[in-house]
Fold MFS transporter.
Amino acid sequence: MASTYRELLAVPGARLFVAAGLVGRMSMAMEGIGIVLLVSAVTGSYGIAGAVSATLALAFAAGAPLTARLADRYGQHRVLVPVVLVNTTGYTLLIVCAQARLPVWTLFAAAAVAGLTQVSLGAWVRARWSYLLRDTPARIGAAYSFESVVDETIFITGPMLVTALSTGVHPAAGIAAAASFTLVGCLAMAWLRDTEPPPRPREPGAGGGSVLRNPGVLVMSPVFLMLGMVFGSIDVSGVAFAEEEGHKALAGVLIGCYALGSGAAALWYGARHWRSPLSRRFLIGLGLLVVGLVPPVLIGNLYLMMSVVFFSGLAISPTIIPGFGLVERLVPAAQLTEGLALVSTAVGIGVALGSSLSGRVVDAEGAHTAFLVPLACAVVAAVIGLAGARSLRKRELSSQSSAE
């Protein structure tokens, strides 16, 4: 297993852009919590804090695919530098407006600027892997597995770091650190031009428009949206369950067990040489995800729940990785970064929706009942996947034929 990842990191330039990507996307697990902690500290309102955080998330959903499209067309370095400078300005304005107790609307405006210019850096990193491994496509799955492990590591460490900074140093320290990570990582990525996919300018008379017109993306986007709702609702349900069991301090450990299961599965998945079609693996992953989310509905003990959610998490990476692989296979090379960014953004929107829905169920029925939310979302994701299975398989075969 280890040799597979050593070979990946031996690819010229890979270690540098992997490190830059890790630093640059640390903020994805920090910004939402950091904004809530900052704004609630200065306004005394969690309602305002949540609304400001939601504004950033919605702006990110609108802006990330657009910046990715520009990167496909003009090159990553030409887009990253101006975008990240504006992004840093947006976060700086947010901190200044909060600390100066300026009118509440200024917080929303600053959050919108920061969100619109927050790039989905994980998609940009995956696009680099696809470019570097274009002659050995079988290794792309291993690269995506590795990036899934990086993502899980970020989602384990990021919330703990931002909470420690915001509560132990200064209310603005967490969001300032998140913005700094984004700035440093994006500038480093822009500097690493040797591993950057070449720009693909739009040819005169060629069809442009959003990658959403791609039939494969039309199937994958709602599935990834529902997967995001699974992740968001699991987090809220887990925290509430730990609190109801009288061990709120162990909430992070409970959520960490879920992420640990996903990370372990990602390492295993990437080390294997798969022969089955991506679409089949994706559908199997969706089915396993549904099965894995049944036990948490039945468990009433916190320590037993930790073991259960670890096994539930084992189905995450074997679903997400072939999902990204399908997008890479189905989307034209000239729109690859945009396509990957779009499904990544769908996950982010789903996390926000799932968190909100699960929170409402917790308030109304309790944490144990709230575990039905991720199960229901997983079922919907599987149904959508099955409904589009024939289309996905057909287009996967077509893309393979055209590549040969």
Notes: The CA atoms of residues 229 and 354 lie 4 Å apart. The first helix runs from residue 2 to 9. The radius of gyration is 20 Å.
